[in-house]
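We both want to read discrete structure tokens more fluently, so let's practise on a single case. Once you have written the record down, we can walk along the chain together.
***
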Amino acid sequence: MRIALITAHDPLTPAAEPCGQQPQSLARALVRRGHRVTMYAPIQAGCRPSAAIVGGVSIEHVCAGPAGPARASTAQAAAYVPEFASSLADRWRTRQPDVVHAFSWTSGLAALAAVRGTSVPVVQTFGSLGQAERRHGAVVPDSRLRLEPAIARSASAVLASSADEAAELARHAVPKSVVRVIPAGIDTQTFCPDGATDGRGSRARLVTVVSPGQPHGLTLVIRALAQLRTAELVIVGGPDSKHLPKTGEFRDLARLASALGVRNRVRFAGELGSARLAALLRSADVLVSAAPYDPSGLAAIQAMACGTPAVVSGVGGQQDAVVDGTTGLVVPPMRADLLVHRLRALLGAPALLQAYGIAAADRARSRYCWERVAGETAAVYQRCRPDRAGLSRSSLASAEAPDEEAAMEQDEAMAMFA
């Protein structure tokens, strides 16, 4: 197939791959399966459109938006969706892709507008939904809350990263027939039990991975550490110990650790590349997460692939990834008492730790390898193509979301930014 992947993030920029979306990794896996993949990303006006081929994937930058500093948010980027969509439509006028796969709501809006009037299907991946993020304290623009359901109802298929996201989509009246749960994928050659291991002492090692600006759930983990006197905690994400800011959430966490008398057992490791993260995860006894919201569960999956069991809060992708009592333990959210109890019990049972680790590596290798994720994604693409067994957008969606209604929603969405 000729596959177009649309992303709001420059694929050539380091760390541009948003957690839970992973378009670059998916693109490479699809190329290995014999597909022709082109990734499209917007750049500011005044920049020269460019093209490159990386790992067999064609990457094309499309001018869309004002000249000057990079846009500060996807809400601002949404204002330039019509320009981005028009450029995509021009490129596809002579040679259409067989399927378009959009990552993020702004990319989905551009993709739907670009294929308007054609039979090209659009597959949508959100990564996370605005309503869920707002419930957990994130600042989310109202336009995103309004448009995400409209985009999902207009797409030929929506790929949810977890059963929790699929349920959220159902609450927005997105037909179940167009939603498919396909989890985040991982590089099982990098994240595997064999390989370099980070040095450690005699203490039991807990590792937690957080988003740079969102260390949610760490307060519970540090308080739990205070009751686990033989354990240490390594925090991945955000600043390292030498570069903690003078104010902010990470400084507050350091102060809490000092107040609880565990600062000498907490290490802020900062941002780590894949190889260094894998080495650290191999050295850990347990990956722990008390996050109140984790759409993909990616850190737990990576740890499991390294043979490290995970103890996680039962939210989002984490509750899909970790099989309670087999590859780790699932704790109800915000239950600090149960988190301490289960960590203490697991750390005190070396044979159980080893058994969980073996089962975790097997599950991660079989369920979350890119070969399987790409295969399931390609199967969705094939099902959406109008030339495959007579299938079309209307045959995939239920009567709850007819084509006319979807078209009206697209018109209203684009009018907001015209």
